[in-house]
Amino acid sequence: MSLQERYMLKVEGLTVSFDGFKAVDDLSFYVEPNECRVIIGPNGAGKTTVLDLICGRTRATDGSVKFKDHELLKMREDQIVHAGVGRKFQTPSVYEDLTVFENLEISYPSGYSVFGALAFVRSPNVQHRIAEIAETIFLEDLLDEKAAFLSHGQKQWLEIGMLLIQDPELLMLDEPVAGMSVAERKKTAELLNRIIQDRSVIVIEHDMGFVADIATRVNVLHQGKMLSEGSMAHVQADPKVIEVYLGH
Amino acid sequence: MTLSKNPLFTRHEAAAFAVLAFVIFLLLPAALDNFRLNLFGKYLTYAFVAVGLALCWGAGGILSLGQGVFFGLGGYCMAMFLKLEASTPENTSIQSTPGIPDFMDWNQLTELPLWWTPFYSLTFALIAVVIVPVIFAFIIGVAMFRRRVGGVYFAIITQAFAAILTILIIGQQGFTGGVNGITDLRTLKGWDIRTDEAKEVLYYVNGALLFVVLFIAHFVRKSKLGRILIAMRDQEDRVRFSGYDVASFKIFIFCLGAAFAGIGGAMFTLQVGFMSPTLVGIVPSIEMVIFCAVGGRLSIIGAVYGALLVNWAKTSFSESFPELWLFGLGGLFIAVVMLFPNGLAGVWTEKVLPQLTGLWKSRKSQPQKEEALQ
Question: What are the protein's UniProt keywords (chain A) (predicted)?
Answer without folding.
Answer: ATP-binding, Nucleotide-binding, Transport
